[in-house]
Specification:
alpha+beta, six-stranded mixed beta sheet, five-stranded mixed beta sheet, flat
């Protein structure tokens, strides 16, 4: 301990020296140890296992502001923010100090380790949520017998004829200092005694405080309680020293230590004071009843010891809290049941199972098994003692209920009922079941029975006889009564209607339902479109013949409404409607095609003309021939020996524009006609070309006629600039490149409407890229330089090259071979070099490689050996 830091030395050895003296000693100690910088102070703290926050707290307890002191001596600022940013990272925390209920502090510190609670063990979950974490002690409620000590703080108020308001902390000498009045010895007095003595002490200076009648009054209250250090050792989550306040109890200190591990005992927590056992605590009293002896206040240097668990006994089954419990010696089944909160209502008392491991002292040598199961009747054995490792399983009663019968089926209220209330079948149906639903099948009611072996049987009765009292049937335990509907027995009674104007539709049959009723409610019977397209001369009705087992078809007419209303339907009847399409086309169409805005196929209207068709197609396009159109008419080949013919029709523009009510010579269209609007060839061609790049006047130019060459358009654009390069130029036609590689191509290449010409530039760089080179580069173009020249400028080739390719700026490409092909590079070209993918070696390949290398090495070693011997 020779090198123990000055703070530790000062705080432990000079607790009764005044604050001023302590600061002088602290300064001398700093000089003696040659500590002059922040880093040296931190290193000294670190070597002695003390964090900066702990040193600050220790100094505060001793009445020294460490921040102020160090700032005055070193010019250092050990404030909270600085501590967080720099100082804290320089110190290796070795001691965890939990400040317990000191003002503005919580029980759980930021350094405290909180493990997840294993809830299979009973009681430990009380430490999961700290009930004191945000609760300061209400010091105003302290009893009068509280013993004052250094560190306690009193608020002393004199009022009446005289006034005094003083906040005083008891110093390390046990005194309260009143400026201009003197020193009052407070430590060692109870709070009650201190109040009496203060009244006498202050009565010397304030008239009326001790006289009669009293005209000056005194109030004394404790505003801050001294912290004390206790040691929590054993099976605590964070064992070690902890700071708590002077009112803290054993439970408070355990919470400060983060609680107890599941390996620790809740039944035997020991408090030692002055090397003697002060008290033993059983925390089950707190967990199960909310009781704990809080009268035992902790004092400085108290030791709380948490021993290992006494034992582990598991309780499961029909209890309120299944868990693993800790029992004291001699505790029984009755005790563990009380700890669990008692039995559940469905617990069985007659056959609890106890699984027990034979204790070490009772085991017989040579026996194969050391675990056995006992069945206990809890009515007689609640005092049975349990031991470590026992597993007590409380079974539950059978789920089966007595005195019940079930009613289900076609009744108003199905369910399970008591036989006592409804002993016979009639009362069960009419009273418990609230009577029958409509459509009940009256010739049958079934009762399903089950005997003690689980075998089922049923009996059938006539429901009418039961309800009119002809038969009386008594019910038995677990009877299930089933009431049937006509649907259950006979199936659903339905009618189907399908065909024109209606989806395949099924409706429920009802009495006096006619054919007209179904047709009217299933179709748009009165709509004109339906009437115009439906085949009114025929509607079929298919009825099921019970004798033959087949459907019989009858034909009716939709025009005979009276007859349809008199034709009543039977279950399973099918009605089928037809459209006029069985003999004719009910949806005639024509097609408008060619140079119109919206070419399409449309329905043919009555008296529809070619002008009407043009309007339906959105009108003429810009370059359409508007005065005449063609109509292609489909012919009947067997009649005319022709497939179709074309009819040329003059368009009546006045009618088309709505200036007249009808065409002068109307041409009426027929089903399948195709109206074709034509346009002259090339009228819709794009009338411009575009030229960009290295020309003097780039831009858009007109396309006057066919036959003009690329050279002509370059002349229109003012000719080439000084940087033009034909080999890297390109021409795009319909988005695709048209290459030209020489001046002859330049003079002979014909330009088409819409072409886009780009004249290449010698200022364009050459790009070398791909996985087969070491460095992707852009290089300035140099005349007559070839591909390998640019590849070398990129660091050369890697091994195992897959391909080398030049992609020309004009849209063409050329391969680069290893020996013969080394093409000239033009401005804007891209050289792409790709490396082969890495090859995965098989086990055989790896083995062969190993043998090859080993042979080479062996041969080399042999050669060296022979040379050495020579």
């Amino acid at each position: 301990m020779k090198n123990t830091f000055l703070l530790f030395f000062l705080f432990s050895s000079f607790t009764l020296i005044s604050q001023k003296s302590k600061e002088v000693l602290l300064s001398n100690e700093l000089d003696k140890r040659n500590i002059t910088t922040k880093a040296e102070a931190i290193d000294e703290l670190n070597r002695n296992g003390i964090t900066l926050s702990q040193a600050q707290e220790m100094a505060r307890i001793q009445g020294i502001d460490l921040n102020t002191f160090l700032s005055n001596n070193f010019g250092l600022d050990f404030s909270e923010n600085q501590n967080k940013s720099n100082l804290g990272s320089d110190i290796n925390d070795k001691i965890e100090v939990v400040i317990d209920t000191i003002p503005n502090k919580n029980f759980t510190s930021s350094n405290q380790v909180v493990d997840e609670i294993d809830k299979t063990y009973f009681g430990y979950e009380i430490f999961e949520n700290n009930p004191f974490a945000e609760k300061d002690y209400l010091v105003g409620n302290i009893d009068e017998g509280y013993l004052l000590s250094p560190g306690d703080e009193l608020r002393i108020t004199v009022f009446g004829n005289n006034a005094l308001n003083s906040q005083n902390k008891i110093d390390l000498n046990g005194n309260i200092i009143f400026p201009n009045l003197g020193v009052f010895q407070a430590a060692g007095n109870t709070l009650k005694t201190a109040k009496s003595r203060l009244k006498l002490f202050l009565g010397k200076f304030y008239n009326g405080l001790v006289s009669s009648p009293q005209k000056t009054f005194l109030d004394v209250s404790l505003t801050q309680i001294r912290p004390v250090t206790v040691n929590v050792i054993g099976e605590a989550k964070t064992p070690g020293p902890h700071l708590v306040n002077g009112l803290a109890s054993v439970l408070n200190a355990i919470y400060s230590a983060g609680g107890i591990k599941t390996s620790g005992s809740l039944r035997k927590v020991l408090l030692y004071r002055n090397d003697k056992l002060q008290k033993e605590f059983d925390l089950y009293d707190y967990v199960t009843q909310g009781n704990i002896d809080s009268d035992v206040r902790l004092m400085n240097s108290d030791i709380i010891f948490i021993p290992p668990r006494l034992n582990s006994v598991k309780l499961e089954g029909g209890v309120n809290n299944e868990s693993i419990y800790e029992l004291k010696q001699g505790e029984t089944i009755n005790d563990i049941i009380n700890f669990s909160g008692g039995f559940k209502p469905n617990a069985s008392m007659e056959n609890a199972n106890l699984s027990r491991i034979i204790p070490f002292e009772d085991r017989v040598k040579g026996e194969k098994y050391d675990k056995y199961l006992s069945t206990i009747n809890l009515n007689d054995n609640m005092d049975f003692e349990l031991i470590d490792g026992d597993v007590l399983s409380i079974s539950t009663i059978l789920t089966k209920r007595l005195n019940e019968v079930t009613l289900k089926g076609n009744v108003n209220k199905s369910g399970t009922f008591s036989i006592d209330a409804f002993a016979d079948l009639k009362s069960l149906i009419l009273i418990a079941g609230k009577g029958l639903l409509p459509n009940t099948y009256m010739d049958k009611v079934d009762i399903i029975k089950e005997n003690s072996l689980g075998e089922k049987s049923f009996k059938t009765y006539n429901l009418r006889n039961i309800l009119d009292g002809t038969s009386t049937i008594n019910l038995e335990q677990d009877d299930v009564v089933k009431i049937y509907s006509l649907t259950d027995v006979e199936g659903e009674k339905t009618i189907n209607i399908s065909g024109f104007g209606v989806d395949n539709k099924t409706v429920f049959w009802r009495k006096n339902l006619s054919m007209f009723d179904i047709i009217f409610e299933s179709t748009s019977f009165n709509e004109l479109e339906f009437q115009s397209k439906v085949l009114s001369s025929r509607v079929d009705l298919e009825s099921f013949n019970n004798e033959s087992g087949k459907f019989l078809r009858n034909v009716y007419s939709l025009d005979d409404v009276v007859g349809l209303k008199k034709t009543f339907l039977s279950p399973s009847d099918k009605i089928i409607l037809y459209s006029k399409s069985v003999t004719s086309n009910i949806n005639p169409t024509i097609t408008i095609f060619g140079s119109v805005n919206e070419p399409k196929t449309i329905s043919l209207n009555e008296n529809m003309t070619v002008e009407d068709a043009i309007l339906s197609g959105g009108g003429f396009e810009v370059f359409a021939i508007k005065d005449k159109v063609d109509v292609v008419r489909k012919l009947t080949f067997s009649k005319d020996a022709l497939f179709s013919r074309t009819i040329s029709i003059n368009v009546d523009m006045d009618y088309l524009l709505g200036l007249t009510k009808s065409p002068v010579e109307p041409f009426y269209l027929e089903d399948n006609d195709v109206v074709v609007v034509r346009k002259n060839n090339r009228d819709d061609l794009v009338a411009t070309i575009k030229i960009n790049g290295e020309v003097n006047l780039p831009g858009v130019y007109s396309f006057p006629k066919y036959g003009l060459k690329l050279q002509d358009y370059v002349e229109y654009a003012g000719g080439f600039t000084d940087f033009a390069n034909l080999e890297s130029s390109k021409l795009l036609r319909d988005g695709k490149a048209v290459t030209f590689n020489s001046k002859s191509d330049f003079k002979s290449l014909i330009v088409f409407p819409g072409d886009e010409i780009t004249i290449g530039s010698e200022t364009s760089n050459v790009l070398v890229t791909g996985t087969g080179i070491y460095l992707e580069t852009f290089s300035a173009w140099e005349k007559n330089k070839r591909s390998r020249y640019y590849i070398k400028k990129s660091g050369g080739l890697k091994e195992r090259i897959e391909s080398k390719l030049v992609i020309r700026n004009n849209g063409s490409s050329k391969k680069i071979s290893n020996f013969f092909s080394n093409p000239i590079i033009y401005p804007g070209d891209v050289i792409v070099v790709e490396q082969k993918l890495p090859r995965e070696k098989s086990e055989k390949t790896i083995g062969d490689e190993f043998v090859r290398i080993f042979s080479i090495v062996s041969g080399a070693l042999t050669t060296i050996l022979l040379v050495t011997k020579l």
